[in-house]
Amino acid sequence: MDLINEFDELPEDVRKEAVDLSVIHISNYAWKYEQIELVLQYLLTKEKIILGGDVYKLKHKTPELIYDSWYCDKEDLINNLKQSQDYIKGYYNLNGKDYCYSFILK
């Protein structure tokens, strides 16, 4: 997956807020809860199917892998978007704002 092309049409302010996971040797980006709706809407308009995602704890603005994740059991654009949205919202409500979320795309 070419990450630059995968998210290059996101609004500049959303792209600037991305957490670069390469600092922990992962070739992906993650976003804090405040940006998730914009990222999900972008993925919907681009018809990108979400297969799941990972959660990272932010410690002093540095992501830390905590091995929390979700997966979607179907390859359905709308269902998987809703499932991802529900997981992230629930995680945020239980754990607070010091986390960011990345997506695994088909």
Key words describing this protein structure:
106 residues, alpha+beta, 39% helix, 31% strand
Rg result: 13 Å
Task: Give the beta-strand count.
Answer: 5
Average pLDDT confidence is 91
Give the helix level as a range of percent.
Answer: 25-40%
Overview of the structural elements:
By secondary structure, this protein is of the alpha+beta class. Helices cover 39% and strands 31% of the residues. It has a 5-stranded antiparallel sheet with strand order 1-2-5-3-4. The longest helix has 19 residues, at 77-95. The N and C termini lie close together (9 Å). The mean pLDDT is 91.
Reconstruct the topology from this structure.
Blueprint lengths: L2 H4 L5 H5 L2 E2 L8 E4 H13 L4 E10 L2 E10 L5 H19 L3 E7 L1
Antiparallel strand pairs: 1-2, 2-5, 3-4, 3-5
Characterize this entry briefly:
By secondary structure, this protein is of the alpha+beta class. The chain has helices spanning 3-6, 12-16, 33-45, 77-95, and strands spanning 19-20, 29-32, 50-59, 62-71, 99-105.
